[in-house]
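ASSEMBLY PREDICTION REQUEST
Request ID: AP-0331
Submitted by: J.K., bench scientist
Number of chains: two
Total residues: 304
Priority: normal
Notes: Please return the full assembly, not individual chains.
Input sequences:
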Amino acid sequence: MATKSPLQRGVFAVTQSDHSFSPDVVDHFLHPRNVGSVENATAAVELVNEICGDNLQMSVKISAGKIEAIKFRSEGCAVAVASASKLTEAVTGRTIAEADNLAKSAVASVQQGTHSEKQHCLDIVLLAWQKLLAEINTK
Amino acid sequence: MTDVKKQVEDIIKIGIKTEIEGQHFYSTLAQKIQNPDARKKIETLAIDEVNHERTLRALYKKLVGTDVSELPAEGLAIFKNAFGDGPLAEADKFRLIELAMEAERLTAKHYADGMAKSTDAGIREVFAELTAEEDGHYDMLAAEREALRGNINWFSYGDSSMMEE
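STATUS: Completed
Returned structure:
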């Protein structure tokens, strides 16, 4: 019988089921929705993650009390891209009041397959969302 | 902390950041490729880089005893400005695949360096396998480059003739 390598054995958490992404998260990483920047944005933020140095931009346009468009750009990891993609998909077309819980749920759904060490990649997406909300509320 | 241990620690941190740079490059490239077979291959590389990041984070924890607290601003930074601002032309596929090959070659060398510096047999074994995986990526990309010399398109798939493996 051939000896399995450390990667094959999952010794270093490569294949541990509790840290495997769902097909949905993989899909959002490989095919992110709402990438880019919104023209005539109501609010826009740019953040740099102090832990890993990744950059995240997010912009939103509000029209008639609803989120008409929200887009992001990230040069971050799979977790950051998938969570930003899921968040923007979840809140598009919603009122601000509806959107906040949906945004948190979208990011939480990525958290389920993510090692706690990568929490900062989820946090920066939620922070960007909160800063957008704060900027919207000042207008 | 010994100098050698600190060196291995830094190799792992730069490796993690390089794998994140690779995730971004390959997933962005895959989104631009119209050819479904080629796109699938590049998506596989993007997922492999996610797994490599996990492996390296676990390796760091084994070596240091804690999670990585902070990463360097840049990894090997091979993919900087890879896509430019304008649309990609079909000719760009050779530039991009050769950039990816260079990245895999340098990353394999980086992990081979980690293997050479490590004294722990388990850590050496993981570095050895990461080196082999990056070499495998290089070989896969080299084979794809040879296929592209035929009549296969990446970005304008509708214009290509019959796909050949």
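REVIEWER COMMENTS: Chain B has one domain: 3-68+87-153.
SIGN-OFF: pending second reviewer
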